[in-house]
Amino acid sequence: MAEELPLMKVCLVCDLGLVDYRKGLLLQEGLLNSRKSGAISDVLLLLQHPSVFTIGRSGIVENIIVPKETLVKEGIPVFHTNRGGDVTYHGPGQLVGYPILNLREDSLTVHQYVWNLEAVVIRTLADFGIGGQRISGRRGVWVGEEKVCALGLRVSGKVSMHGFALNV
């Protein structure tokens, strides 16, 4: 008698390279709607963005520590987003991951999902001999007192978008 194997969940991983933030956001929104309707399985977008600052729902433009004159001179745009969190810088060389996942299928709460994302980053850093950690009361992953990975999410209809930005 053949042994029955457990079902594996399908997740399409897309390594997109350097993607303009606005185009990446539009792609996420389209995938979010397709995932909510059940038209597609889970998707993980891996990419980088040209230099950009994003401001989450709890952030304000005054939290950007780069002078406005520098942003203008360097042509660095600022986007207000519908994700959680404060200000995040994205730039070339940073690994950005946007998981478009149906949390309901795995019976995950948003807090469990965030915890799991942080755990994956911590384990990945450990694979490279880097001691990442959580710091109580602060979101993200830290190496010592330095934040190495920012997290900011939006969940709509139990499907996630936005994700993490890992400084590599």
UniProtKB/TrEMBL annotation:
GO molecular function: lipoyl(octanoyl) transferase activity
The UniProt record lists the keyword Hydrolase: no
PROSITE patterns, alphabetized: BPL_LPL_CATALYTIC, LIPB
Pfam families: LplA-B_cat
Domain BPL/LPL catalytic: 38-168
Annotated pathway: Protein modification; protein lipoylation via endogenous pathway; protein N(6)-(lipoyl)lysine from octanoyl-[acyl-carrier-protein]: step 1/2
GO BP annotations listed: protein lipoylation
UniProt signal peptide: none
Matches recorded under PANTHER family: LIPOYLTRANSFERASE 2, MITOCHONDRIAL-RELATED, OCTANOYLTRANSFERASE
Protein name: lipoyl(octanoyl) transferase
Organism: marine sediment metagenome
